[in-house]
Amino acid sequence: MPEQTATRDRSSPIPGLSPEATPILGLGLGLTGLALGLRPRLVPLPLALTALAAALYRDPNRVTPSEPGTLFAPADGVVLRVDETYEHRFVHSDCLRIAVAIAALDVPVCRCPAAGTVGYLEHVSGEYRPASDPEAAERNERLYIGVNTDWGPLLIALLAGPLARRISCRVQVGDRLEAGARVGTVRFGARADLYVQRDVVRLFTAPSQRLTAGITRIGEVVPL
Predict the structure, then answer these.
(1) Which of 128, 76, 103 is nearest to 189 (CA)?
(2) 70-221: what fold?
């Protein structure tokens, strides 16, 4: 099994926000209090910066519908493309690949599209090309998360973008996940690619569609 070298996320003390937001918000509120005492007219600046930090580090709780045959969006963002490719790391099959561009102000937390067990993790160092770059899938720094579901394997690839130089992982090999479970984080504009077997799943998503991780239905398992 390839070694996992991506950072593991911590639990958050503030509901709805990433744990990384805690010191930033504490600093922002402290500066706001200091400005209030010394220069009240400057208070809007640290307040605005605190609000921006809270927006960038959102991690809302979501309830994914209990639909075993449904495939849900892996990330918040816009579908860049849907294409066919052979996936050789984990699925080992002809696959449909859904590439999702995650904007800087989108929720950066990625989620599992279907229930299953984590069977593969690999972190690959690389470049930081824009999400729209055709070669980003094989050139950028990325984290692969393979999940064995009841109907077959799927692979999630989290790609770091030009501004995000760190990918956080929230799972370990052997973890049992429900659909919509958090699997990792990529910030400040990035990309998430989902690989599913071509003949197993019927997709009903298309380029330019806006997705919400763990909520938007993007496909269904083809009945045997």
Answers:
(1) 103
(2) Glucose Permease (Domain IIA) (2.70.70)
Q: Where are the domains of the chain?
A: 21-56, 70-221
Give yes or no for a contact between 169 and 109, defined as CB atoms under 8 angstroms apart: no
Q: What pTM does this model have?
A: 0.81
- Over residues 191-202, the pLDDT tens digits come to 999 999 999 999
Q: What is the gyration radius of the CA atoms in the chain, in angstroms?
A: 19
Provide the token pair at 221. 């398992």
Do the beta carbons of residue 145 and residue 105 sit within 8 Å?
Answer: no
pLDDT digits (tens, 9 = 90+) for 134-160: 899 999 999 999 999 999 999 999 999
Other beta carbons less than 10 A from residue 135's beta carbon: 9
Tokens, residue 95: 């696959």
What amino acid is encoded at 120 in this protein? Answer: Y
Q: What is the 8-class DSSP label of residue 18?
A: -
Q: How far apart are CA 54 and CA 5, in angstroms?
A: 27
151, amino acid identity = W
